[in-house]
Amino acid sequence: MRPRTVHRRLGRLAALATALCLGGGLLAGPGQAAAVGHGNDGPHPAARPTSRVTPADRPPLTDPVDARHREHTPRSAPVHHSRPSMKGLSPERRAAACDIADFTRNTGSALVAKIKGATTDCVNTLFALTGTDARGAFREAQMTTVAYALRDGAASYPGDGSTGLPQLVLFLRAGYYVQWYHSGDTGPYGSALRTAIRSGLDAFFAAPRSRDVTDANGETLAEAVTLIDSAQENARYLYVVERLLKGYDSSYDASWWMLNAVNNVYTVLFRGHQVPAFVTAVERAPAVLRTLHDFAAAHLDLLGGKQSYLTANAGRELGRFLQHASLRERTRPYAVDLLRRTAMTGRTAPLWVGVAEMADYYDKAGCDQYGVCDLQKRLTDAVLTVRHTCGPSIAIRAQQMTAAELASTCASLGGQDAFFHGVAKDSGPVADDRNTTIEVTVFDSSADYQTYAGAIYGIDTNNGGMYLEGDPAAAGNQPRFIAYEAEWLRPDFAIWNLNHEYTHYLDGRFDMYGDFNAGVSTPTIWWIEGFAEYVSYSYRKETYREAIAEAGKHTYKLSTVFDTAYGDDTTRVYRWGYLAVRYLLENHRADVDAVLAAYRKGDWQAARRHLTETIGTRYDADWDRWLTACAAGGCATGGGTGARPAA
């Protein structure tokens, strides 16, 4: 996946997120980046959760063992890895690929046999179970059986997946995930499962072949490391964290799975801070602090390369221990040393910025000891050195852009205004909106965006850009969108998602009353993201081939698309949002005008009633016919399209 756009955020919501900022999350490993938004396949951005997480907001991770390219599903808490989508399969084909009854109607050895005999694709589907199926598969007795099967299988583990251990581990992870969100369905988990899962993990990590540096072993090893966190056994397995960090060398680089196994230990650390026993364990045996420091210091050569995230994450997770007063004095010298070995800009910046963020957030009173006082201003001044004004309403702040690139960007944005107003048919800004100017911040690459945008603006960077609206009624509020050059398209110059993000600004100013919180008080995501897609692709006269392909699948009724939320998969949010907006604009303009009239007044309930009651299911049959025509060529021109950003 190419880096993608997340929803426009903000107002008081963004201020709160910034206030609760953790100072940085994990960088993604190979294929693990959490990308949210629209666009084509391409480079993955790094995952940088910014919201503070309490134990009540801590779901187990959802991570495939079979998918080499992973797609992020937004959740209520930071999630660095994601439950796989069986991409390209219709819901009907997904169901046919796996008989859920194999896991809900069997118990004991029969259940274990079914799990071992299933594909990982099949076991992956179990993350979505609810209701009686969730109870049938994942009640405590079932999970305990499988945990002991992991123990028994580990005794003769051959160093590969031939005996079904990857499926057992993934089943256990799915169970913890489902139980987290649907404990009423699965029932509670208690000491019986705790004893069983410890015996299973103990046995696996004790197995001699679990130390093999091979792709075959790495598949199970990487998922077993993540299972540590799913079971909240972060304290018990600190020795596994140390073993993998101390064992890493260049031989691991040949194995995608072994690299994941190493990177997954950072998740055990990242989320371990939410487990009191974990902090106590580090207080009693703080060797992991030195291990993290030594790993980062020994692998500075990785920075700027394919495995850069391993070194940067070591620094981040070391710095995260600064949050504990009992560990701060032990952690501080290690953090200071890493900062002295690296620099704010250049090849070592990912490590410097990661450690600096942690020090700035968790030990701000001691900022002078680290040399990170006024961190945001120092980073902004050092990195975003280009300033340019397009006109009275648009200013650009960039890391590196030529005069020609600035001119082309201004022309693209300036020309979009008239196009937008022609489609929206607005009569001017909504009431109480003072967002008369927009600041466009452009980093030089996706890597620079990942390194700096979170530290400067306190945002997630697991995306392809972000629009920050603020409180449009507040005097002095400065809306901005933060983007980056699509370096994979060089030598052509393009700012990724430029026109999509600019549409969010225009839509917020001319169509949506109030701030972002108000605008999403009812389901409006179908419009917010669908309209941004529609305007972006229509203005650029591109064919949105990915959306057209989705139209041919007839996955959603129009009435269903109206209920879309950001928690839904990105295909539904962006491509189906685009299709719904295009269908209504081309076939039911009066309905669009009625909905927008309510949006512009902030009457969200009236707009919702129009969608769910006035329209309801009335257009579903016509929509279905329209989708057929769209897929057959009816959407190839006109309305909108393609996946190349504007130059």
Major sheet attributes: 5 strands, mixed
The residue fraction in helices comes out at 40-55%
- First-to-last CA distance: 20 Å
Strand runs, count: 5
User: How would the global form be characterised?
Assistant: globular
Radius of gyration: 25 Å
Number of helices: 31
* Strand order in the largest sheet: 1-2-3-5-4
Structural class: mainly alpha
Mean pLDDT: 86
**Low-confidence sequence ranges:** 1-23, 29-58, 62-96, 640-647
Query: Approximately what portion of the residues adopt beta-strand conformation?
Result: under 5%
Model description:
α15 runs antiparallel to α16, α26 (545-551) packs across α28 (570-587) and α26 packs across α31 (620-634). Among the domains are: 54-273, no CATH class; 520-647, Neutral Protease, domain 2 (Orthogonal Bundle), CATH 1.10.390.20. The protein has helices spanning 12-19, 91-96, 101-104, 108-117, 120-124, 131-138, 140-154, 165-181, 183-186, 191-206, 215-230, 238-247, 256-272, 276-284, 287-298, 308-320, 325-341, 349-362, 367-370, 375-383, 403-424, 446-457, 498-510, 516-519, 525-539, 545-551, 558-561, 570-587, 589-601, 604-615, 620-634; strands spanning 386-389, 394-398, 438-443, 466-468, 480-484. 54% of the residues lie in helices and 4% in strands. β1 and β2 (394-398) form a beta hairpin. Strands 1-2-3-5-4 form a five-stranded mixed beta sheet. It is mainly alpha-helical. Residues 1-23, 29-58, 62-96 and 640-647 have low confidence and may be disordered.
